[in-house]
Amino acid sequence: MKATHYPLSTSAPSAYGLRNCDIASRLEFLIPLLGSYEVLLKTVKRSYRILTSDIEEVIKPNFAQLQECGLTVCDIVKTNPRLLSFNPERIKRYVHRADMLGVPRCSPAFRMAVCSTNEGSVTARMEFLSRTLGCSMDNILIAVGKRPTILGLSMDNLRRKIEFLVTEVGLKLECIVECLGILRYSLEKRMVPRHSVMEILRARGLMKKGASLYGLIMQGEADFVARYIDTHKDMVHGLADAYNASCFGKMPVVPDSTVKKRHGRRDIYCRGFAMFEIWNLLSYMLDNYTCRSALHLADTLLEFSELQQ
Protein backbone atom coordinates (compact mmCIF):
# COMPACT_ATOMS: atom_id res chain seq x y z
CA MET A 1 0.00 0.00 0.00
CA LYS A 2 1.43 3.37 -1.01
CA ALA A 3 1.41 6.27 1.38
CA THR A 4 2.03 9.87 0.44
CA HIS A 5 0.65 12.43 2.89
CA TYR A 6 -1.41 12.32 6.06
CA PRO A 7 -3.26 15.33 7.46
CA LEU A 8 -1.92 16.90 10.62
CA SER A 9 -5.32 16.44 12.23
CA THR A 10 -4.98 12.65 12.04
CA SER A 11 -4.25 11.07 15.40
CA ALA A 12 -0.58 10.05 15.63
CA PRO A 13 -0.03 10.61 11.87
CA SER A 14 3.61 9.53 11.87
CA ALA A 15 2.84 6.19 13.54
CA TYR A 16 -0.11 5.62 11.20
CA GLY A 17 2.00 6.37 8.15
CA LEU A 18 4.86 4.15 9.26
CA ARG A 19 2.54 1.21 9.90
CA ASN A 20 1.23 1.44 6.34
CA CYS A 21 4.43 1.79 4.34
CA ASP A 22 7.49 -0.29 3.54
CA ILE A 23 9.89 1.34 5.99
CA ALA A 24 12.77 -0.97 5.08
CA SER A 25 12.86 0.09 1.43
CA ARG A 26 12.65 3.75 2.44
CA LEU A 27 15.60 3.41 4.80
CA GLU A 28 17.61 1.59 2.13
CA PHE A 29 17.04 4.54 -0.21
CA LEU A 30 17.23 7.49 2.21
CA ILE A 31 20.31 6.61 4.27
CA PRO A 32 22.69 6.54 1.26
CA LEU A 33 20.95 9.59 -0.21
CA LEU A 34 21.35 11.68 2.96
CA GLY A 35 24.75 10.30 3.77
CA SER A 36 24.24 8.71 7.18
CA TYR A 37 21.69 7.45 9.66
CA GLU A 38 22.40 10.45 11.89
CA VAL A 39 21.44 12.89 9.12
CA LEU A 40 18.30 10.87 8.42
CA LEU A 41 17.35 11.03 12.10
CA LYS A 42 17.77 14.80 12.20
CA THR A 43 15.75 15.13 9.01
CA VAL A 44 12.91 12.95 10.30
CA LYS A 45 12.74 15.06 13.46
CA ARG A 46 12.05 18.09 11.27
CA SER A 47 9.70 16.30 8.86
CA TYR A 48 8.53 12.72 9.43
CA ARG A 49 6.81 12.74 6.02
CA ILE A 50 10.08 11.87 4.35
CA LEU A 51 9.49 8.35 5.70
CA THR A 52 5.83 8.14 4.70
CA SER A 53 6.07 9.66 1.21
CA ASP A 54 6.24 7.47 -1.88
CA ILE A 55 9.83 7.03 -3.02
CA GLU A 56 9.17 6.61 -6.75
CA GLU A 57 6.31 9.08 -7.21
CA VAL A 58 7.26 11.81 -4.72
CA ILE A 59 10.77 11.83 -3.28
CA LYS A 60 12.76 10.82 -6.38
CA PRO A 61 10.98 13.27 -8.76
CA ASN A 62 11.35 16.11 -6.23
CA PHE A 63 14.99 15.40 -5.63
CA ALA A 64 15.63 15.25 -9.39
CA GLN A 65 13.90 18.61 -9.95
CA LEU A 66 15.81 20.35 -7.19
CA GLN A 67 19.09 18.77 -8.28
CA GLU A 68 18.55 20.09 -11.80
CA CYS A 69 18.35 23.56 -10.27
CA GLY A 70 21.75 23.12 -8.67
CA LEU A 71 20.55 22.26 -5.18
CA THR A 72 22.29 19.49 -3.26
CA VAL A 73 20.85 17.11 -0.70
CA CYS A 74 22.61 19.14 1.99
CA ASP A 75 20.97 22.37 0.74
CA ILE A 76 17.50 20.85 0.83
CA VAL A 77 17.83 19.08 4.18
CA LYS A 78 19.29 22.10 5.96
CA THR A 79 16.73 24.56 4.61
CA ASN A 80 13.43 22.73 4.27
CA PRO A 81 13.40 18.90 4.17
CA ARG A 82 9.61 18.95 3.76
CA LEU A 83 10.18 19.86 0.11
CA LEU A 84 11.09 16.26 -0.63
CA SER A 85 7.63 15.10 0.45
CA PHE A 86 5.62 17.76 -1.42
CA ASN A 87 3.61 17.12 -4.57
CA PRO A 88 6.09 17.36 -7.48
CA GLU A 89 3.84 19.88 -9.22
CA ARG A 90 4.11 22.11 -6.19
CA ILE A 91 7.92 21.97 -6.42
CA LYS A 92 7.67 23.05 -10.05
CA ARG A 93 5.71 26.13 -8.94
CA TYR A 94 8.33 26.92 -6.29
CA VAL A 95 11.13 26.74 -8.83
CA HIS A 96 9.17 28.85 -11.32
CA ARG A 97 8.49 31.44 -8.61
CA ALA A 98 12.20 31.70 -7.80
CA ASP A 99 13.01 32.11 -11.49
CA MET A 100 10.41 34.88 -11.77
CA LEU A 101 12.12 36.70 -8.90
CA GLY A 102 15.20 36.84 -11.08
CA VAL A 103 17.39 34.90 -8.66
CA PRO A 104 20.24 33.14 -10.50
CA ARG A 105 20.09 29.39 -9.99
CA CYS A 106 23.81 29.33 -9.30
CA SER A 107 23.51 31.77 -6.38
CA PRO A 108 23.05 30.80 -2.71
CA ALA A 109 19.94 32.99 -2.67
CA PHE A 110 18.16 30.62 -5.03
CA ARG A 111 17.98 27.94 -2.34
CA MET A 112 16.16 30.32 0.01
CA ALA A 113 13.88 31.57 -2.76
CA VAL A 114 12.75 28.00 -3.43
CA CYS A 115 12.61 26.72 0.13
CA SER A 116 11.58 29.52 2.44
CA THR A 117 7.94 30.40 1.74
CA ASN A 118 4.79 29.43 -0.15
CA GLU A 119 3.14 31.20 -3.06
CA GLY A 120 0.55 33.13 -1.06
CA SER A 121 2.99 34.56 1.46
CA VAL A 122 5.46 35.56 -1.25
CA THR A 123 2.82 37.54 -3.10
CA ALA A 124 1.52 39.12 0.11
CA ARG A 125 4.97 40.20 1.25
CA MET A 126 5.91 41.55 -2.17
CA GLU A 127 2.73 43.63 -2.25
CA PHE A 128 3.28 44.77 1.33
CA LEU A 129 6.83 45.94 0.60
CA SER A 130 5.73 47.69 -2.58
CA ARG A 131 2.91 49.47 -0.78
CA THR A 132 4.85 50.33 2.40
CA LEU A 133 8.03 51.50 0.66
CA GLY A 134 6.15 53.34 -2.07
CA CYS A 135 7.85 51.72 -5.05
CA SER A 136 6.83 49.57 -7.99
CA MET A 137 6.64 45.80 -7.94
CA ASP A 138 9.41 45.74 -10.54
CA ASN A 139 11.76 47.52 -8.16
CA ILE A 140 10.76 45.20 -5.32
CA LEU A 141 11.42 42.19 -7.56
CA ILE A 142 14.94 43.45 -8.22
CA ALA A 143 15.61 44.17 -4.55
CA VAL A 144 14.13 40.92 -3.30
CA GLY A 145 16.03 38.96 -5.94
CA LYS A 146 19.24 40.01 -4.18
CA ARG A 147 17.98 39.09 -0.69
CA PRO A 148 15.08 36.61 -1.05
CA THR A 149 15.45 35.50 2.59
CA ILE A 150 13.40 38.51 3.70
CA LEU A 151 10.35 36.87 2.13
CA GLY A 152 10.50 34.39 4.99
CA LEU A 153 9.84 37.16 7.53
CA SER A 154 6.35 37.97 8.75
CA MET A 155 4.71 41.20 7.66
CA ASP A 156 4.60 42.37 11.27
CA ASN A 157 8.34 41.79 11.52
CA LEU A 158 8.95 43.78 8.33
CA ARG A 159 6.57 46.53 9.43
CA ARG A 160 8.30 47.09 12.77
CA LYS A 161 11.75 47.24 11.16
CA ILE A 162 10.66 49.69 8.47
CA GLU A 163 8.93 51.85 11.07
CA PHE A 164 12.09 51.93 13.20
CA LEU A 165 14.33 52.79 10.25
CA VAL A 166 12.03 55.62 9.15
CA THR A 167 10.91 57.15 12.45
CA GLU A 168 13.99 56.60 14.61
CA VAL A 169 16.91 56.35 12.24
CA GLY A 170 15.51 58.85 9.75
CA LEU A 171 16.10 56.80 6.62
CA LYS A 172 14.15 57.66 3.49
CA LEU A 173 12.01 54.95 1.94
CA GLU A 174 14.08 54.90 -1.23
CA CYS A 175 17.19 54.25 0.85
CA ILE A 176 15.54 51.21 2.44
CA VAL A 177 14.64 49.87 -1.01
CA GLU A 178 18.27 50.22 -2.10
CA CYS A 179 19.54 48.35 0.97
CA LEU A 180 16.61 45.99 1.49
CA GLY A 181 18.93 43.33 2.89
CA ILE A 182 19.08 45.28 6.14
CA LEU A 183 15.60 43.96 6.97
CA ARG A 184 16.89 40.44 7.45
CA TYR A 185 18.70 41.44 10.64
CA SER A 186 17.04 41.36 14.06
CA LEU A 187 15.45 44.61 15.23
CA GLU A 188 16.01 43.95 18.93
CA LYS A 189 19.41 42.25 18.75
CA ARG A 190 21.05 44.14 15.90
CA MET A 191 19.35 47.31 14.73
CA VAL A 192 18.41 48.98 18.02
CA PRO A 193 21.64 48.16 19.92
CA ARG A 194 23.92 49.30 17.09
CA HIS A 195 21.87 52.39 16.39
CA SER A 196 22.06 53.37 20.08
CA VAL A 197 25.86 52.95 20.02
CA MET A 198 26.05 55.03 16.85
CA GLU A 199 23.99 57.83 18.38
CA ILE A 200 25.97 57.82 21.62
CA LEU A 201 29.28 58.06 19.80
CA ARG A 202 27.94 60.66 17.39
CA ALA A 203 26.63 62.81 20.25
CA ARG A 204 30.09 62.75 21.81
CA GLY A 205 31.90 63.58 18.60
CA LEU A 206 33.39 60.10 18.26
CA MET A 207 31.58 58.98 15.11
CA LYS A 208 32.66 59.90 11.60
CA LYS A 209 30.17 62.07 9.73
CA GLY A 210 29.95 59.68 6.81
CA ALA A 211 29.10 56.64 8.95
CA SER A 212 25.77 54.99 8.19
CA LEU A 213 23.66 52.58 10.18
CA TYR A 214 23.57 50.24 7.19
CA GLY A 215 27.35 49.92 7.30
CA LEU A 216 27.30 49.26 11.05
CA ILE A 217 24.57 46.64 10.83
CA MET A 218 26.25 44.79 7.97
CA GLN A 219 29.50 44.40 9.92
CA GLY A 220 30.22 41.12 11.67
CA GLU A 221 29.92 41.12 15.44
CA ALA A 222 33.68 40.87 16.08
CA ASP A 223 34.49 43.70 13.66
CA PHE A 224 31.76 45.94 15.07
CA VAL A 225 32.85 45.42 18.68
CA ALA A 226 36.52 45.98 17.85
CA ARG A 227 35.86 49.16 15.86
CA TYR A 228 33.10 50.86 17.82
CA ILE A 229 33.06 49.39 21.33
CA ASP A 230 36.65 48.52 22.22
CA THR A 231 38.08 51.59 20.51
CA HIS A 232 35.93 53.94 22.61
CA LYS A 233 35.66 52.03 25.89
CA ASP A 234 38.01 54.49 27.63
CA MET A 235 36.07 57.46 26.29
CA VAL A 236 32.58 56.21 27.22
CA HIS A 237 32.75 53.99 30.27
CA GLY A 238 29.99 51.39 30.49
CA LEU A 239 29.41 51.38 26.71
CA ALA A 240 30.49 47.75 26.29
CA ASP A 241 28.29 46.51 29.14
CA ALA A 242 25.35 48.53 27.86
CA TYR A 243 25.76 47.19 24.33
CA ASN A 244 26.08 43.57 25.46
CA ALA A 245 23.00 43.88 27.65
CA SER A 246 20.94 45.62 24.97
CA CYS A 247 21.66 42.76 22.58
CA PHE A 248 19.81 40.53 25.04
CA GLY A 249 16.89 42.92 25.32
CA LYS A 250 17.86 44.67 28.57
CA MET A 251 20.07 47.44 29.83
CA PRO A 252 22.48 47.05 32.74
CA VAL A 253 22.57 49.01 35.98
CA VAL A 254 25.99 50.60 35.60
CA PRO A 255 27.64 51.85 38.82
CA ASP A 256 28.23 55.57 39.23
CA SER A 257 31.26 56.13 37.04
CA THR A 258 33.39 58.69 35.33
CA VAL A 259 32.56 59.41 31.72
CA LYS A 260 35.28 60.97 29.61
CA LYS A 261 34.37 63.34 26.79
CA ARG A 262 36.90 64.90 24.45
CA HIS A 263 36.71 68.63 23.67
CA GLY A 264 39.56 69.53 21.31
CA ARG A 265 42.72 68.80 23.30
CA ARG A 266 40.99 68.86 26.70
CA ASP A 267 39.51 65.86 28.46
CA ILE A 268 36.62 66.63 30.80
CA TYR A 269 35.50 64.16 33.46
CA CYS A 270 31.95 64.35 34.76
CA ARG A 271 30.25 62.82 37.80
CA GLY A 272 26.87 64.52 38.02
CA PHE A 273 24.09 62.06 37.17
CA ALA A 274 24.92 58.43 37.90
CA MET A 275 25.41 56.45 34.70
CA PHE A 276 22.80 53.89 35.73
CA GLU A 277 20.18 56.67 35.78
CA ILE A 278 21.03 57.63 32.22
CA TRP A 279 21.12 54.02 31.00
CA ASN A 280 17.80 53.28 32.67
CA LEU A 281 16.34 56.29 30.90
CA LEU A 282 17.73 55.05 27.59
CA SER A 283 16.28 51.62 28.25
CA TYR A 284 12.80 53.03 28.82
CA MET A 285 12.94 55.29 25.78
CA LEU A 286 14.40 52.61 23.52
CA ASP A 287 11.60 50.25 24.49
CA ASN A 288 9.18 52.85 23.16
CA TYR A 289 11.19 53.53 19.98
CA THR A 290 12.14 57.08 20.85
CA CYS A 291 15.88 56.57 21.16
CA ARG A 292 16.77 59.81 19.37
CA SER A 293 15.01 61.87 22.06
CA ALA A 294 16.44 59.67 24.81
CA LEU A 295 19.99 60.04 23.57
CA HIS A 296 19.59 63.80 23.23
CA LEU A 297 18.31 64.04 26.80
CA ALA A 298 21.06 61.75 28.08
CA ASP A 299 23.72 63.90 26.45
CA THR A 300 22.13 67.01 27.94
CA LEU A 301 22.33 65.42 31.39
CA LEU A 302 26.01 64.67 30.84
CA GLU A 303 26.65 68.26 29.75
CA PHE A 304 24.84 69.52 32.85
CA SER A 305 26.94 67.21 35.00
CA GLU A 306 30.13 68.63 33.56
CA LEU A 307 29.05 72.19 34.25
CA GLN A 308 28.50 71.33 37.91
CA GLN A 309 32.16 70.32 38.38
Automatic annotation (TrEMBL):
The keyword Transcription regulation applies. The keyword Phosphoprotein does not apply. GO terms for molecular function: nucleic acid binding. Keywords: Transcription, Transcription regulation, Transcription termination, Transit peptide. Coiled coil: none annotated. GO terms for biological process: DNA-templated transcription termination. It comes from the Eukaryota. InterPro entries: MTERF, MTERF_sf. It holds the Pfam family mTERF. Belongs to the mTERF family. PANTHER family: CGI-12 PROTEIN-RELATED, OS11G0246100 PROTEIN. This is Uncharacterized protein. It comes from Oryza sativa subsp. japonica (Rice).
